[in-house]
Amino acid sequence: MKKIFTLVSIAFCAMSVNAQTESWAVTEIVEGETVLKADYVANADPSAMSVVRFSTANVEGTHTSGPIAGYNDVEGNVRPDELEPKYDNGWSGLKKNKLDLESETTGTDVYFYYVQGKGNPVDISKVGIDPIYDGTGENAPIKGYRADWTSAYYAFDGSNGLPTNGTYLTFTSKVDGVLTTKVYVLKGNRDVYVVKASDAKPLRIGQEITANGYINNTKTVMEENATKGTEGTDAFVLGGGQNFWGTLSWKAVKGETYYVFCKNTQIGFSEFTFTPGDGTGIENVEGAEAAKVAPKKVVKNGQVMIGDFNIAGQRVK
Predict the structure, then answer these.
(1) Which domain holds residue 245?
(2) DSSP tag of 3
(3) Residue 208 domain-assigned?
(4) Which of 80, 94, 156, 305 is most exposed by smallest CB count within 10 Å?
(5) Hey, what's the torsion of the CAs at 158, 163, 169, 174, to 10 degrees?
(6) Residue 4 lies inside a defined structural domain of this protein
(7) What is the pLDDT of residue 24?
(8) What pLDDT was estimated at residue 216?
(9) Residue 296 in contact with residue 103, Cβ under 8 Å?
(10) Phi-psi region of 291 (alpha: psi -120 to 50; beta: other; left: phi over 0)
(11) How far apart are CA 132 and CA 147, in angstroms?
(12) How many of the other CB atoms lie within 10 Å of CB of 186?
């Protein structure tokens, strides 16, 4: 199945698909300036995870940071029972990226705002201890020990469970609907996951997930990401070695919790919207005739538009 990516510069704004759409952003306007919401404060206990909780009428969510960013190596040939953790549960502060977007208001710049937490998303209980060898070969002596993260990282077959540490998002919807989250991904070749908590299984990009966005400095609307497929890890990669600024959109099921994260980096979070129901009044960009061309990108009526499509990759009827 072909994956369609409308690679458009994005400034999410409030998406006005219909009157029911709900949204929450990491930013707010204070005295005319865009600032990070006061919710983003590190836990006073450095050894505890920082958790920002947010909600709308039908969605409850969390954004996490830390607390363990790594472990200190140990010198010597005696295997320790445990390694000393490096704690960091802070937040990056508000970051922004100027997007190459034409605006109805001449001279108006459009920015992509986001915030990141600390620590890779892992099941911290599964971090092991590996020897560090002095040289190579089977007889090389052990000179120390370090953390082994292999089994702690998420596996797309669900066998390693869900993250309990680091930076990730969760969304739980009270009703069925379409959930769209605006994210920053460091390098499009990193695994990106939207995972169901009920079975630890991920949704696939280009199939259950519609991904739309702006690949670092790409100004054209591209029809598809032809370098990746639908099987194995290719179903969870946005493609390319450039940064991705955009949206992930999927049909959320009532009562299900979805984890959103990158496998070995900190995903950036900007905003999410939720439209209850089956998305009546919108049409996915995949298969639509307008996706075959590169229409003008504009900010119109407070919404980023590419032809007849909003930045969630949906046709507004």
Answers:
(1) 22-316
(2) P
(3) yes
(4) 80
(5) 60
(6) no
(7) 98
(8) 67
(9) no
(10) alpha
(11) 10
(12) 16
- Per the structure, how many domains does the chain have? 1
Beta-sheet strand order (sheet of 268-276): 22-25, 268-276, 177-185, 244-252, 210-215
Give the integer Cα–Cα distance in Å for 312 and 173: 18
Q: What is the pTM of this model?
A: 0.80
Q: Is residue 136 part of a domain?
A: yes
- DSSP-H helix ranges across the chain: none
Residue 120 bridge partners (DSSP): none
281: left (phi over 0), alpha (psi -120 to 50) or beta: left
Give residue 264's pLDDT: 86
* Binned average pLDDT, 10 residues per bin, the chain of 317 residues: 36 47 96 95 98 98 97 95 97 89 62 95 96 89 95 93 98 97 84 95 88 66 41 67 85 98 94 85 37 41 45 44
DSSP string, 74-103: EESSSPPSS--EEE-------EEEEE--EE
Tokens found for residue 49: 């995870």
| Spatial distance between the Cα atoms of 292 and 307, rounded to a whole number of angstroms | 11
Distance CA 122, CA 182 (A): 22
What's the half-sphere exposure (Cβ side, CA atoms, 13 Å) at 195? 26
Residue 170 lies in a domain: yes
**Are 225 and 239 within 8 A, CB to CB?**
yes
* E-only strand ranges, 104-209: 110-114, 128-133, 142-148, 169-173, 177-185, 192-196
